[in-house]
Write a structure and sequence with these properties.
The chain has 10 helices and 19 strands. By secondary structure, it is of the alpha/beta class.
Length: 353
Amino acid sequence: MTATATGSTLLRPLADRPALTASAIGRPTRRGLLVGGLGAAGLFGLTACGAGGSSAKASGGASAGAWSFTDDRGRTVRLPRRPRRIAFLTDTVGAALWAAGLQPVAAADSGQGIVPAVKPDWTGVTKIYSADKGVRLEALAQARPDLLVDAVQPDGTLQVSSQLSEVSKIAPVVGLSTYQPIEKIAGTADRLTASLGSHLADAGAKARYTAASARLKSAVAANPGVRVGFVFGIDKNTIGVMNPATWAVLKTVRALGMRLVPVPAGSDNTYSQAVSWENVPSIPVDLLVWAVSDPMPDAPLWKRTPAVAAGQVWKPELASWYAYSWENFTVLLDGLASRVGSARAGVGPRDAS
């Protein structure tokens, strides 16, 4: 089977987009999700210094003592005393850290439901997001932070990279990658929170997540033939199949044994690969998970897709994909476990040889 698309589409991450509608998803932007066209061989065939390891580590101690943290870029921020005024520059890291128990003095909320998903306390917190400018630098400076936290993108750059020279004049920046398995993202959020002297908001959340992971692993092991595809809408002619090598959730579930629809390597497919609507019914998938966009399709071709016709399709809450907390992903993994456990294998077309 071959599939075509109208060309590469540049999408900005949900945390940075002003609206999450079908028309907005295809809007070009510099901070984005690269969605490549699908060909014949396609889908189915500041004080940062030093460099550490790829995992984050921190040393805290009393607030009067020296503090350091090695972030997900391998860069170490060293300060003479532990920071007390923290700012979250993007929704995703903000949600993860808020959920862990860290209270900021300033934070971004682009209005996509990611931050509200973790029920933050906005008392005394300056909102610094602007739909047209990104981080509102003046508002950020007025909040007087002594440490900033931003998301690290797959290429290793910060999400706020275009404003980094201005932002880093206000305070040093720690980067937290949201393109790792969930346990690494939430684990780093916990370590950073603890190193800054804050108590974890929910000490039992990690244990519940671990139990949900075990339930999903058992469901997959009991029904190993089920092929799962995570997809979203790009425009009226195209959907994207999410790349298991990039997305945090997909990295997590693949490690638990879930059989995912593959996406070929290549920079055009970093985040997902485009499939034209006429070829959607030919995707070799038994269970479809609709992700990161609204609404779920109602098109005839979608309804003719074997997994959809069999009722083997699920649409979790939109914020599920970006609110990186133990609790949020416990709910998501439990939902996947239930649907994988009840799905019939072999509903969809056979894999291309």
